[in-house]
């Protein structure tokens, strides 16, 4: 929900999202402005709890959050703890001081292109300086090449100890606005996680797995020889009796959609092993308590995708154990009542902690006592990104021994999936990111293809805004922090701090200097206008689609009357032939002769009950205000087209945009008057 004032300044914005595994309010912002000004005075968020989702945080209590200099540049942001911002002669931020954190300095070339960023971080007690250099498409951090940009993404440098650096291609998948939605990579990594239970390996295994030390036991008498994973002296002993351990070695693994997982474990039990015949199976609530205890302090392991990630809460609860887990056991074809209820379990939860049944299951021990058996799940591809929980368990009172739990992970192509709110804030609750740690430097080119400035300091905080080249954009509140340098170019009706005419679905602003309409959006709108004109000429939808196919060359038709749209980025976009005049009974589209002839034929073949295009209308209806508006529009367009003959570059694109605006306004006015006349009739 969004509200504006008459100048297009935001007054209120409400955004909802995934909060603590449930839908809830992320932001409920109220904006206040200085008197007779477009400059912000304060922003108040009624959602006081910190969501940790990168959204707006209201940190001020004095009622004045922002300050500006004499030319309209933001100089203080109390909510981000920014004490001061100084600017260079191009109104670009030069030095930013953050209270209690440090400072950030930017350097530019004569054209305003950023060439260096120096962060002085004081959050750790000792000043830490990080220098990032931008040399064309190459980005260096402290003199080490991080990546080089290419047309469809980046070439990333991979550093590994004791090896020469290698280079990997990453690709950005973007939507029609230029927002990066997916990051795909050619790199593949294979990682093996092993719980051998052997004491010499304990230090390493305890970093990856839970329940290693407290389930370790000497292998029992009669345990078959097995040195497949090296010397074998210890196993994990599980039993549901008394103080016995019910949950064995456990692993939480961060996975991304497309990753391939394979897992296995050894299992053994004796035919004459001790059994509590009075209580053969432990109650569900006891199993759940042990499960929560096993994973209570677990940190997801992510050696394939980077450093350990964090999980805010556990997915295990009574509903999982009594419903979801029971279903997993019931669909297991090897489920038999005559053998111990001991399992190798694997459960995938997506990022919203909803179980993904296709990648979840249990493997029960076989009815093969006194034999070493293997429980395994062959290669399976992850359907969704999330967290894979792998663990061994025993619900019966008979002793079961597990050993050599192995989990193999082959990374897939997906590194990052990002979704956005309309004004550019990331929907963190439903976005996935494997780019953690030094293995994968996180892609910062996100909204409108621009670089996100964030996490400059060691505590994870930072500027949290976008560098749009000519200006800086704060996606948390949907406003630029400087005035548009081209505000006088057909933007006088809007606040100089607006983003994309407050219509970020239709318009994009790739460089911060006047929004542009997206070619594909233009095509859809003009297609709608073409359908409307076809309706006025009593054409069917099928006929309109045929005309569209001829105009665009689709479905084998020969393209006719193509016109290159004035797009800054997509020079191959094709504009559909549409009317340049307002739409009324006499309007005709300026199209190729063949299409014009077909439209004339459609006008002459009206249905008996439908009024003819020129029939039944009075003189006043045919020559009323709509006609005068159309004539005025024609004159404006003629003037602009004369200017277009001598215009070049950006000026040419601006004039073309003005022509389209005049056409749109005239069409809307004529359409409104047509509805009014219809109501009168």
UniProtKB/TrEMBL annotation:
It comes from the Bacteria. Residues 579-681 are annotated as: Disordered. Residues 619-681 have a biased composition (Basic and acidic residues). InterPro entries: Rhs_assc_core, T6SS_VgrG/RHS. PANTHER family: PROTEIN RHSA-RELATED (PTHR32305:SF15), PTHR32305. NCBIfam families: Rhs_assc_core. This is RHS repeat-associated core domain-containing protein.
């Amino acid at each position: 929900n969004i509200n504006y004032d008459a100048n297009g300044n935001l007054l209120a914005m409400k955004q909802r999202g995934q909060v603590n595994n449930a839908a809830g309010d992320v932001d409920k912002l109220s904006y206040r402005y200085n008197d007779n000004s477009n400059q912000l005075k304060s922003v108040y968020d009624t959602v006081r709890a910190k969501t940790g989702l990168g959204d707006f945080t209201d940190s001020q209590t004095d009622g004045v959050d922002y300050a500006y200099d004499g030319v309209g540049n933001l100089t203080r942001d109390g909510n981000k703890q920014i004490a001061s911002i100084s600017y260079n002669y191009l109104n670009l931020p030069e030095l930013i001081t953050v209270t209690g954190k440090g400072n950030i300095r930017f350097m530019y070339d004569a054209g305003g292109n950023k060439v260096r960023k120096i962060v002085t971080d004081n959050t750790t007690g000792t000043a830490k300086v990080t220098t990032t250099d931008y040399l064309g498409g190459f980005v260096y951090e402290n003199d080490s090449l991080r990546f080089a940009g290419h047309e469809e993404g980046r070439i990333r440098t991979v550093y590994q100890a004791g090896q020469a650096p290698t280079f990997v291609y990453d690709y950005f998948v973007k939507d029609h606005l230029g927002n990066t939605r997916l990051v795909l990579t050619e790199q593949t990594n294979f990682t093996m996680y092993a719980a051998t239970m052997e004491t010499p390996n304990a230090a390493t295994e305890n970093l990856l797995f839970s329940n290693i030390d407290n389930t370790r036991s000497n292998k029992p008498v009669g345990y078959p020889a097995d040195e497949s994973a090296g010397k074998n002296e210890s196993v994990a002993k599980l039993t549901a009796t008394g103080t016995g351990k019910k949950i064995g070695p456990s692993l939480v693994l961060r996975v991304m959609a497309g990753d391939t997982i394979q897992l296995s474990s050894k299992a053994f039990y004796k035919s004459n092993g001790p059994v509590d015949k009075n209580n053969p199976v432990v109650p569900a609530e006891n199993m759940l308590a042990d499960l929560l205890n096993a994973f209570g302090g677990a940190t997801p392991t992510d050696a394939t995708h980077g450093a350990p990630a964090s999980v805010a809460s556990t997915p295990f609860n009574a509903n999982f154990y009594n419903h979801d887990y029971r279903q997993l056991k019931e669909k297991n074809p090897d489920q038999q009542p005559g053998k111990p209820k001991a399992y190798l379990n694997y459960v995938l939860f997506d990022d919203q902690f909803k179980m993904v049944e296709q990648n979840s299951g249990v493997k029960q021990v076989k009815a093969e006592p006194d034999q070493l058996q293997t429980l395994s799940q062959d290669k399976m591809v992850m359907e969704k990104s999330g967290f894979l929980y792998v663990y061994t368990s025993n619900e019966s009172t008979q002793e079961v021994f597990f050993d050599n739990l192995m989990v193999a992970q082959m990374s897939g192509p997906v590194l990052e999936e990002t979704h956005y709110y309309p004004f550019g804030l990331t929907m963190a609750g439903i976005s996935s990111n494997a780019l953690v740690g030094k293995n994968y430097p996180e892609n910062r080119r996100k909204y409108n293809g621009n670089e996100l400035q964030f996490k400059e300091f060691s505590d994870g905080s930072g500027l949290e805004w976008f560098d749009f080249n000519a200006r800086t954009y704060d996606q948390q509140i949907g406003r630029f922090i400087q005035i548009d340098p081209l505000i006088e170019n057909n933007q006088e009706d809007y606040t100089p701090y607006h983003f994309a005419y407050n219509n970020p679905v239709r318009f994009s602003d790739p460089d911060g200097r006047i929004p542009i309409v997206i070619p594909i959006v233009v095509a859809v709108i003009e297609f709608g206008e073409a359908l409307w004109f076809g309706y006025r000429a009593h054409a069917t939808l099928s006929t309109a689609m045929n005309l569209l196919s001829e105009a665009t060359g689709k479905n084998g038709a020969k393209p006719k009357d193509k016109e290159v749209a004035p797009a800054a980025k997509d020079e191959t976009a094709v504009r559909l032939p549409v009317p340049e005049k307002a739409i009324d009974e006499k309007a005709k589209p300026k199209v190729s002769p063949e299409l014009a002839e077909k439209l004339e034929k459609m006008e002459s073949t009206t249905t008996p009950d439908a009024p003819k295009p020129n029939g039944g209308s009075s003189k006043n209806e045919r020559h009323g205000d709509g006609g005068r508006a159309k004539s005025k529009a024609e004159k404006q367009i003629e003037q602009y087209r004369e200017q277009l003959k001598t215009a070049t570059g950006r000026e040419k694109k601006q004039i073309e945009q003005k022509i389209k605006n005049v056409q749109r306004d005239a069409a809307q006015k004529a359409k409104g008057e047509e509805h009014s006349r219809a109501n009168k009739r």
